[in-house]
């Protein structure tokens, strides 16, 4: 098995097994917390999010991913080989790893973070702000 097949298998496994299990667990915990009268908390703001996609992404509306002040906390791994189509004006604050996929941007897009893609096709202005924090990804995220 080569590296790209390994990434594809990992995204399939994460998307079809682990993520639904975690989503169910988080939902069950939220129901229990609500039933016991605990206050609502935004825990995910200080953590790391990894989105693993076994196919491709597509959106014809404006899309917002991640936070511009901490793009290194959001990572998107795409295992598909086609084209990721983003038609609306988008703000992406993430590090996107899609070595076998092309990204087609037809709306004004601002990217905070990095792109590792096969090809970038743009039909509207694209601004990329490279985030140097990704070079220190092994350092713990600060608590906000």
Top keywords for this entry?
globular, about 140 residues, alpha/beta, 1 helix
Structure description:
- The protein is an alpha/beta fold and 144 residues long.
- It contains one helix and eight strands, in the order H-E-E-E-E-E-E-E-E.
- The radius of gyration is 17 Å and the shape is globular.
List the helices and strands and how they pair.
Elements: H1 3-35, E1 49-53, E2 58-59, E3 63-65, E4 74-78, E5 83-86, E6 90-105, E7 109-122, E8 126-130
Helix count equals: 1
Oligomer: single chain
Note the run of SSEs as H and E.
HEEEEEEEE
Overall radius of gyration? 17 Å
Question: Low-confidence parts, pLDDT < 50 over ≥5 residues?
Answer: none
Report the β-strand fraction as a percent range.
35-45%
Distance between the termini: 41 Å
Main beta sheet: 8 strands, parallel
Mean pLDDT over the full residue set: 79
Q: Which structural class fits the helix and strand makeup?
A: alpha/beta
What would you call the shape? Answer: globular
Number of domains: 1
How many beta-strand elements?
A: 8
Helix coverage percent:
10-25%
């Amino acid at each position: 098995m080569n590296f790209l097949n390994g990434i594809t298998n990992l995204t399939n496994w994460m998307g079809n097994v682990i993520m639904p299990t975690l989503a169910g667990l988080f939902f069950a915990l939220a129901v229990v917390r609500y039933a016991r009268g605990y206050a609502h908390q935004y825990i995910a703001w200080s953590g790391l999010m990894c989105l693993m996609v076994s196919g491709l992404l597509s959106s014809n509306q404006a899309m917002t991913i991640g936070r511009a002040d901490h793009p290194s906390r959001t990572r998107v791994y795409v295992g598909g080989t086609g084209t990721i189509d983003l038609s609306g004006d988008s703000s992406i604050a993430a590090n996107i790893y899609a070595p076998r996929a092309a990204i087609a941007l037809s709306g004004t897009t601002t990217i905070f973070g990095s792109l590792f893609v096969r090809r970038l096709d743009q039909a509207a202005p694209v601004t990329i702000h490279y985030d140097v924090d990704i070079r220190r990804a092994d350092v713990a995220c600060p608590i906000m």
